[in-house]
């Protein structure tokens, strides 16, 4: 039945409006209205400002009762780069990322559909996106006024270290690779823990990946040639171990932030994994691999398209492709007397 009345329920705080999407099953909540002004001249300064002054927005939108522990979000802010169509600040259950491939694929469609790109072009529209890790170029299929599948070219991706031995509590000494694809990840085959990324219990996979993340954080010093803001381990990606090039999909599962599980194959994770495979000679330029999510069986493709440098690291530009979809819109309100208004996270 229709219920007449006001557009919003009773509230005495801000109204935050969002568009919800998903890429390969991984959600993205895009804030389109209600965000207070974000201070800072550069995107990294804006990221620090949001973390310091506006973290309540992240908590309100991503945590319960309006979200859940695996919700993901993005704040759209101006970029200091004149050729960027938008600046993006990525949010998760623990804080703020430097890169997010599934979000870039979704935002590329969003930018075209919501007028952030003034004149979309067929058959493909270019979207310049300023992420905390740098400028990322995306391309969106566009025909008869409708956007479709997207792809993006990464910032320089590289193998930070291979065959690093870390002492993982309860598991012993484990050999891992560390790759950068806009964010740093540890990569390790799930079979080293007696697990399978597609069939093992999620709790067991999360426990193993989280243990690796904590061990690497404690035992390996990361650095990035461009900024210390980028020099932190985002998470661990457990793989099926099939790193040599094959026409068959290779599966992985990403556990990042505070034991948050990516439902997609993980765009920045695919980027780092391609960089590692290229570094080891397991894949050549422009060889397209298909990556499958161990959680949803959704697929991304990835390929190294160009050699480059990142400081002293030999690097590659990686192209990742996938399809994002809209799931809805929402307006969220706050009531000041609600003791849970700023969100909570069950451990």
TrEMBL record:
Top-level EC class as recorded in UniProt: lyase
Catalysed reaction equations from the record: trans-3-hydroxy-L-proline = 1-pyrroline-2-carboxylate + H2O
UniProt EC number: 4.2.1.77
Top-level taxon of the source organism: Eukaryota
Presence of the UniProt keyword Chaperone in the record: no
Name of a matching Pfam family: Pro_racemase
MF terms in GO: trans-L-3-hydroxyproline dehydratase activity
Keyword terms, alphabetized: Lyase
Keyword Nucleus included in the entry's annotation: no
Family annotation (InterPro entries): Pro_racemase_fam
Subunit structure: Homodimer.
Entry similarity comment: Belongs to the proline racemase family.
Protein name: trans-L-3-hydroxyproline dehydratase
